[in-house]
Amino acid sequence: MMDGHDLPKIADVTDVDAQAEVKRLAGLDPAAYETERKHAAARLSWRTSVLDAEVQKVRQLNTDPDECEQNSFIEDLEPWLDPVDGASLAEEIRNRLRDHVVFGTDADADCATLWIIGTYLMNTWRLWPRLLITSPTKACGKSTLLEVVDALAYRGFIASNATPAAIFRAIEAWQPTLLLDEADTWMRQNEELAGILNSGHTNRTARVIRVQEVNGELVPTPFSTWCPMVIAGIGSQRDTLMSRSIVIGLRRKLPEEKVAKLPIDLHGQMLRVRRRIARWTADNAVRIGAMENEPPACGNDRLQDNFTPLWRIATALGGIWPDRIAAAYSLQVKAQEKSDEPAGVIMLHDIAELFATRTGRPDRLSSAEIVTDLIALEERPWAEWKRGNPITATTVAKLMKPFGIKPKVAKLHGSSTRVYLRSEIEAAACRYAGS
Predict the structure, then answer these.
(1) Degrees (nearest 5) of the Cα angle 246, 250, 251?
(2) What residue ranges do the domains of the chain occupy?
(3) Which of 73, 114, 271, 348 has the fewest CB atoms within 10 Å, i.e. the most exposed one?
(4) Domains 86-339 and 343-432 fall in the same CATH topology
C-alpha cells in the first residue's frame, strides 16, 4: 500500500486497466458506486478519498458545464437499498448532533432530530416550521450545528448572507434545505426578507410573485418559498418568525463538557445516514401523510401546528420518540406561557420569591443583591436581558415603577444603600403576579 505522498493522480497513471476501472466506476449510479468503491480502491492500492476525487474528475469531463455547476449545489440522493429501522436511525442522528454542540436541553436535540428527518418529507406536509437556533452570546456552536444539520438534512445549503431575491430564486431552482447563519446581523431589520420567510410556513401560501422580462415583455412570475429552513443567530428574532419556528437553544460549553471537533469530510461521512433517512421516509411517507393525530391543545394554535409534523414523525418512529416529543412540546408550551407575561410581572414574581426563600425572611433587600440573584435564576431572561447582556439596577427600577414600587435609601448591613421593601413587593405580587 502506497502512502499519501506516493499516490498518483489519474493523469500520471500509465496502467490502462486503472484508467479503464476509473472510467467504469464513473459511469455507475451513486448507489452502485457506493457499493463498489472500497473494493475498487483496494484493488488499485488507493485510498477511497483519492478514488472519489478521480471518479469525480471523469464525471465532470462527461457533464455539461452548466449542469455540473448546478449539480454542485444539488445532491441527487439515492435511497438506501435495504429497509431501515427508523428508531435506531433517529438515535444515531441525535447522537451525532449531541457530539458536537451543547444543547440548552435534551428536548432541543430531540426536536432537531425529528426536524431533520422531516426535511425529506416536504411533499407530505401542509405546514412546516422553521428551525430557529438561538444562543445568548457568541461561541455557543451555532455555526457548528448548522454544519452538522447541513450534513444530515435533505439537500442542505448554507449561506451567511443573501438578498431576498436570491433566497426565493434559490428555493425555486434547487428546492434545498436552506441554512442561514448570522441572522442577528442581517435579517432582523429586513422587511422584504421577513415577508419571504413568513410566506413559506404553509405549502399553499409559500410563494411570492415578481415581475420579470420574458421575450421583451414584463410577466408576473410566481416563485416558490416552500423549503425547510434553518435560521441561526444570537438572541431572538422577529415575533412573526419566532411564532413560525421550532426554537432550540445552545449553550457555551463548560471546561468539563466535551464536544467533538467536526471532521473535514463530515458531509461525505454522513452520506450513508442521508441515504438511510431517504429510504425510511420513502417507506413511511404515505403512512405519515395519512395521520391525523396532533399534540393536545395548548391555547396557542400556531405552536400546536408547528409541533404536529414532528409529533407524527415521532409516532411513526415509535419506541421512546413519542414520549420525547411530548416532553419537548410541554417545555415549549410552558416557555410560551411565561413569555406571554409582561416582563415586569415576571420580575415582580421572581423578587417576591427571593424574599420568601431568604433565610430569616428579611424585610428589605438591596438593589445590588436583587440584581445578582435575578441574574443567577435559570430559565429566566435576566442573564441575557438586552443583546446578551444582563439586567442592571436601572432595569429593575424601570420594571418595578409601574407597580408603584421604588427603591428607597435605607440602612442595610451597617451602611446606607438603595433597598426594596418586602412589604411593598409582596403586596404588589399578590395583586399582579398571583403570589
Answers:
(1) 155
(2) 10-71, 86-339, 343-432
(3) 73
(4) no
| Closest alpha carbon to 349 in 360, 359, 338 | 338
Superfamily of domain 86-339: P-loop containing nucleotide triphosphate hydrolases (3.40.50.300)
Rounded-to-integer distance, Cα 201 and Cα 226, Å:
7
> What is the rounded distance in angstroms from the CA atom of residue 314 to the CA atom of residue 90?
9
Q: How far is CA 254 from CA 172, 196, 251, 258, 388, in A?
A: 42, 38, 9, 8, 18
Per residue in 115-160, pLDDT tens? Answer: 999 999 999 999 999 999 988 777 788 899 999 999 999 999 998 8
pLDDT, tens digit, 9 for 90 and up, residues 326-370: 999 999 888 776 665 678 888 998 999 899 888 888 899 999 999
Residue 203 cell numbers, joined = 405549502
Beta strands in 155-314 (DSSP E): 156-159, 177-180, 207-214, 217-224, 229-234, 245-251
Q: CATH number of the domain at 343-432, out of 3.40.1000, 1.10.10, 3.30.70, 1.25.40?
A: 1.10.10
